[in-house]
Each structure stands twice: as structure tokens, then as C-alpha cells.
Amino acid sequence: MAESPAGKATFRVPARTGRAWADWPVQAGLAAPAVPPAQIGQLAVVAEPLDPELLTGPVEVTGITQVTHDVKTFELRAGWMSAVDFAPGQYVTMRFPELGCERCYSISSAPFGTNIFTITVKRVPGGVVSTYLHDSVRVGDRVHVDGPYGLFSTSFHPAARHLFLSAGSGITPIMSMVRSLLARQGGFGTDIVFVHSASTPADIIFRAELEQLAEVAGVSVTILCSRDAGTETWTGRRGRIDAAALAEVVPDAAERETFVCGPGPYMDAVRPLLAEAGVLQARTHEESFVFATSPADRLAGAEARARAAGAGAGACGATGVSHAIEFAVSGRVVDCDESTTVLDSALDAGLSVPSSCSEGACGTCKSVLVSGEVEMKHAGGIRPKEIAAGKFLPCCSTPLTDLVVER
Known about the structure:
Elements: E1 11-13, E2 38-40, E3 43-45, E4 55-68, E5 71-77, E6 91-96, E7 101-106, E8 116-122, H1 128-135, E9 142-149, E10 162-167, H2 171-183, E11 192-198, H3 207-213, E12 219-225, E13 237-238, H4 243-249, E14 257-261, H5 264-276, E15 284-287, H6 295-309, E16 322-327, E17 332-337, H7 342-348, E18 367-371, E19 374-376, H8 384-388, E20 391-392, E21 397-399, E22 403-406
Parallel strand pairs: 10-11, 10-14, 11-12, 12-13, 14-15, 16-22
Antiparallel strand pairs: 1-19, 2-3, 4-5, 4-9, 5-8, 6-7, 6-9, 16-17, 18-20, 18-22, 19-21
Helix pairs in contact: 6-7
């Protein structure tokens, strides 16, 4: 896998006719194969030429495996690529135009140099997309993916010793990393501690594989269950993860690179435990797709800023250097200061812009910068080749000059 994206470091994204991006390693001379119109669920869409280097387009569902009573693994094939290049722990953004929404799902397989990868999805009660995937998607269907994205990976944070903590479906990116580490040199020199929490034995995702991993030299696996299942009494460690359990199963936690993924309450509980165990924040890495700001919340925030700004304060309602942003499709032009994101300026102007995370992670708001420069602080939701092509993430970009945005 290539070096880590620039991530949350600040850098400039010039217009497509700008400077400084000739140094990006963009492979030339590859013709994108033509593909027939893709069928995404029941919605027919016109396929565009696909870039053989980018995992962006309709992938075919080639297999579906029931993992637990409410979890399925979907095997996906990107037919236009010879191999899907991703770092273990990364995710894809899946778009469902027929549902009018998108979701981020971690890749659960390891990068083995093929054009097939897997996602593992838990059915969420009332969840539009997870219910659709579980009930409606069949082998042979196509779904649209965009990625890979994210900085939550052992590839970006290499270490000799690892601690993995997961709960529920948070195990999926962790399993991708563990599988990748074990495949590296046949697992020689592996030093992994893996602690997974589940509600009941029936809810343990990848249970058989976890039991096999526990027999591998250099790998310690601990599974905690909060309660028994209807058909099984849990004989392993019981309860939720706490300081005592962590100290017992991984007394050298402070010496390990740590990766944590799970529901919000689980993440909130684990952070102080790791701090108490002496794990430095710089060596703790988290993944969560529970985005704090929804589009509706962002629109509400825009209205609040407009009210606070008062008459004559401009679209952004802030002092300082202001730049004009032209949204080419709508023809709207708004003023925006250098501390306000392009997405916020669009929402302030009443424009509808697709967005999800507001953190530069999911890639939903990705747009083309026709002219001008922005300062972008992203969290892995855009790739170097896309930046080189003049794309940027409005949700985490502030203007440095006047802009023209292709939207």
C-alpha cells in the first residue's frame, strides 16, 4: 500500500490548472475499460468509464455468507480492476441512489492482491441500508462503492506489538488488520493481543476464526460476553471490559500500538481505561462511523449562524479576509471568510450539498475545484490521485482565494 494520505495535516489544493501537483505519482497510459450500464439494486444507471486504479464504481456481489443471526459478509468484485489496493482497516463509502443515502463500511478482508474484497454488515433495527443489504441484495447484484478511505490502519501506524480492542461489528476493520499481519511473512514475529466484546455468544462475529486465532503463536485472544445466549451458557470471561480485565489480559498495554473500534458507548468506556493503563494518546487509534453532524444538523447550524450574523454581515457571518465562492451549476456566488468551510458557506446560502461526516472522512461531499485554492484538513476521505485531478472535500476545506466549485 502506498504511503499514508496527508490526513489531518494542512496542505493546499490548487485548481486543476494550478501548480505543484505534477509530482504526484499518477500512472499514465491506462485506458479505462468500457462497461455496460450497471444495475444497482432495481435502479438502472448509466456507467461512466472506470479508472482501473480507483475503487470507484459498481461492484458485483459474488458471495453472501451468514456470519451470525444478524450479520452477513458480502463478497464484492471490482471487475474493472486487476487488484483492489487498500490498507487493512480502511473502508468504502457505499452509495444507494435508490434509497437516497450512503453508508461507510469497513473492508473486512485483507488485501491479498485480487479484485475481490469483503464487507461485513450487521443488521441495525430500523436501519435503511443494513436492512436493504440483508433482505434485498442477492449474488449477481451490483452496488456502488467509492474508496478506500481512512487512516485507521496498521499500514499507517506500523509497530512490532499490537493491541486490538473491538465490540460488536467494530471487529470488521480489526479483523482485516489481524488477517493482514498474520499473512505477512507467515505471521513470523507476530505479537498481537485481541480483546473482543459481544452481547452474547450468539453475537460473536467471526467466532470460529477467533477461536482458531487463539491457537496461533504470538496471538492472544480474549472474548467477553455480557450475558448468555438463549441456547448457550457462556463459559468464558463475562461482563464488560474494565480496568481489571485489561490489566490481566494485556499488562503491557502501554508498550503496544492500540486500535479501537466499536459503538460510541464502548469507545467512551475504553478511552479512560487505556489512559489509566498508560497507553499514550498518540499510540491509540479509533474508528467510528457514528458521524456527529447530520446534514439536517448542519442546515440548522447554518440558520443559527445567519441569525447571529445579523443584517449586513455577509453569508458567512464572520470578520476577517473574505473570498467569493461561485457554485458553477447553480450560478450562486457567496462570500466566505477564511475560517468557514466551503460546505458551510454553501449551506448558509441555502444550497443543497450531499454530506455526511463533516470531518473529511467519508468522501460524500467530494467536489471539483475549478479554480482557486483551499486549505484542506481531511481524515482520509480523499485520495492523492483525486487531489491531483482537482478534487477536494468542501466539508473540511476553507478558502485561500476566490473559488469556483463545480456544483
